[in-house]
Amino acid sequence: MKKIFTILFLSVLFPLLPFSQVPYKVTHNEGWDSYPPEALRQGYYFQKSVLAQMDSDPQMERVILFGKDKGHYPEFDLFRQYVAIVDNYTGKIEFMGEVVTSDSFNMELDDRNCDGISEVYYEHIIDDTFSVDSRGYNMQCTRCYDRIELEGGKTK
Ligand SMILES: [Ca+2]
Ligand SMILES: [Ca+2]
């Protein structure tokens, strides 16, 4: 009988013990998944997103690459792409990049000046201009390596 009382006592007490209290709850994100719908231009698709510190506001930003196919050639493919930067907490769009042409979906984040704020780097073909020979080989173009840097919400 004493044992039963002990078990009953423990089963009532157990949920009240400090170690049984969970300080936070893990839930799935609700609302927008990877990006707010306004960040998606018509005909483009989500490619990837990276969480990064993009400005002096301690809240993190989500840097998102969107893209679509532009054309396929024997030796290479062409794509259209752009970068959007979204406040990860509010979902507010902080930056919408220009659409550029490239032969790969590319976006790299780095803090090359070591100020604790990341920059976005990407390569594209200047003026979307390129040429190929009669068989579709030997692409000629001028490439540009660009940078997106936010500071106080402004692009440099
Ligand atoms: Ca921030
Ligand atoms: Ca930096």
Structural overview:
This protein has 156 residues and is mainly beta. It has one domain. Strands 1, 2, 3, 4 and 5 form a five-stranded antiparallel β-sheet that branches. Strands 6-7-8 form a three-stranded antiparallel β-sheet, with no helix packed on it. The chain is elongated, with a radius of gyration of 25 Å. The termini are far apart. About 3% of the residues have low confidence. The structure holds calcium ion (2 copies). The site of one calcium ion (CA) has 5 residues, from loops. One calcium ion binds next to loops.
Beta-strand content: 35-45%
Q: Number of DSSP strands?
A: 10
What's the order of the H and E elements? HEEEEEEEEEE
Quote the average pLDDT. Answer: 84
Largest sheet: number of strands, sense, barrel closure? 5 strands, antiparallel
User: In one word, what is the shape?
Assistant: elongated
Bound molecules: calcium ion
Integer count of domains = 1
Radius of gyration, Cα only, in angstroms? 25 Å
The oligomeric status of these chains comes to single chain
Query: What fraction, in percent, of the residue positions are helical?
Result: under 10%
Intertermini distance = 78 Å
- Low-confidence segments, given as residue ranges, are 27-31
Instruction: Determine the structural class based on helices, strands and strand pairing.
Output: mainly beta
Question: Helical segment tally?
Answer: 1
